[in-house]
Task: inverse folding
């Protein structure tokens, strides 16, 4: 007897009744792609850069590859072997896994300025830990931040001062429902790579803040002088400088993008791909700050399971051996060239942005939301999961890149013809997708 129908539309309808938002992640809600119930939504198998829907349809994934969790490709053989071995040996017990210690040594070797490590399993909770440590260490409450750092109260409280405070930090329009109003004024946003905000916001408020938190790289690397000034301000006012490398980590190199800038933080947070899709995250930092974990209460039973650290060890070693960052940069450059060439051949104006492994594009039209919805819709018909973003993957090989290139050329051509007629809305099979994501900008 089958547990589920193979009709994903029926499952989605059931999910709408039982699970608010359908998915546990905003980025995986079907409405973020298509709103006509044609987005496959559920899968039964994923391998490399291919995903099989529950009806058996095979797709190439040229979107965000599960929000960037699996740069070695889905279901990597070596990570799988480690996971199976761990599960057979007992993934958790009353005692602790020795892999914790081995992983801590490896991470500190790769981040020699750091002295201590704490492990968790998700990015958002890891950032909450980092904030707690900074507040405990400094005795201050306020936080200066730039970028997207999760769903927790400390972060969403930014929108108490202004509903638009988070608009420049990936997710515009976030509401503060359920967040204690007492947190108003404790979280202060500043814009990425913006010299004016550096002086008027960061320098002005730093003396009263526990931490300066930023993604050192998402859309681009910051200006070297800018990041050096951030470091100097943190030093002068004794703020904890925290780099959130949950998205940027393990893309441009082995570890954090901050290494390219040659500016060390006081704490760095890794997550997402550190175990190639297995839940795992790490907070590294200076001992004087990390030791606050013994004074404040930071604890969870599932931070002690073996699967995460064991798979992280396998991932890191394989990543280094294969020099995965070089492949990710190569793939990202290829994808950008595909977009640029397809736009040029079809007389479309296009903006291409992002570091190579985290590329994104925008076609300049009168109705971008409708245009990107049409792009997703038509690419799906060609059995490709796509969006305006493409996270480069080690398993994006020449065959898959050629398939993607051919599809982009075809769909860009259609967009060009439709754009001339001004009939984009008539070409949509359903409503315009939800436009819930933004990107960091210099504005």
Result:
């Amino acid at each position: 007897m089958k547990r589920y129908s193979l009709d994903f539309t029926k499952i989605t309808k059931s999910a709408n009744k039982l699970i608010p938002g359908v998915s546990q992640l905003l980025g995986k809600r079907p409405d973020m792609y298509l709103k006509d119930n044609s987005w496959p939504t559920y899968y039964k198998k994923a391998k490399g850069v291919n995903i099989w829907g529950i009806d058996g349809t095979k797709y190439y994934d040229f979107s965000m590859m599960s929000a960037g969790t699996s740069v070695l490709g889905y279901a990597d053989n070596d990570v799988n072997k480690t996971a199976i071995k761990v599960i057979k040996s007992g993934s958790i017990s009353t005692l602790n896994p020795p892999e914790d210690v081995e992983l801590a040594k490896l991470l500190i070797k790769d981040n020699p300025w750091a002295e201590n490590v704490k492990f968790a399993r998700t990015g958002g909770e890891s950032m909450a830990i980092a904030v707690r440590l900074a507040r405990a260490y400094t005795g201050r409450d306020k936080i200066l931040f730039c970028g997207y750092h999760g769903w927790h109260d400390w972060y969403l409280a930014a929108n108490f001062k202004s509903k638009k405070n988070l608009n420049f930090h990936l997710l515009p329009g976030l509401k503060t429902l359920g967040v204690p109003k007492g947190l108003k004024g404790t979280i202060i946003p500043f814009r990425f790579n913006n010299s004016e905000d550096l002086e008027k916001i960061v320098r002005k408020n730093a003396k009263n803040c526990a931490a300066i938190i930023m993604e050192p790289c998402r859309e681009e690397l910051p200006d070297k002088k800018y990041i050096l000034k951030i470091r100097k301000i943190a030093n002068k006012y004794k703020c904890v400088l925290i780099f959130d490398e949950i998205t940027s980590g393990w893309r441009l190199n082995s570890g954090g993008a901050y290494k390219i800038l040659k500016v060390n933080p006081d704490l760095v947070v890794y997550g997402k791909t550190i175990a190639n899709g297995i839940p795992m995250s790490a907070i590294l930092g200076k001992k004087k700050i990390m030791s606050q974990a013994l004074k404040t209460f930071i604890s969870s039973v599932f931070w002690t399971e073996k699967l995460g650290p064991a798979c992280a060890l396998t991932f890191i070693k394989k990543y280094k051996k294969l020099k995965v960052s070089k492949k990710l940069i190569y793939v990202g450059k290829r994808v950008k060239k595909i977009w640029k060439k397809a736009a040029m051949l079809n007389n479309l104006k296009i903006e291409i942005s992002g570091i190579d492994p985290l590329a994104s594009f925008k076609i300049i039209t009168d109705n971008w939301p409708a245009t990107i919805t049409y792009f997703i819709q038509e690419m799906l018909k060609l059995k490709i999961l796509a969006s305006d973003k493409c996270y480069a993957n080690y398993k994006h090989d020449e065959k898959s890149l050629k398939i993607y290139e051919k599809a982009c050329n075809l769909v860009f051509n259609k967009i060009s013809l439709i754009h001339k007629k001004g009939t984009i809305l008539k070409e949509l099979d359903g409503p315009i997708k939800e436009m819930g994501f933004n990107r960091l900008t210099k504005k």
Q: What stands out?
A: The two ends are 56 Å apart (CA to CA). The chain has 14 helices and 14 strands. The mean pLDDT is 94.
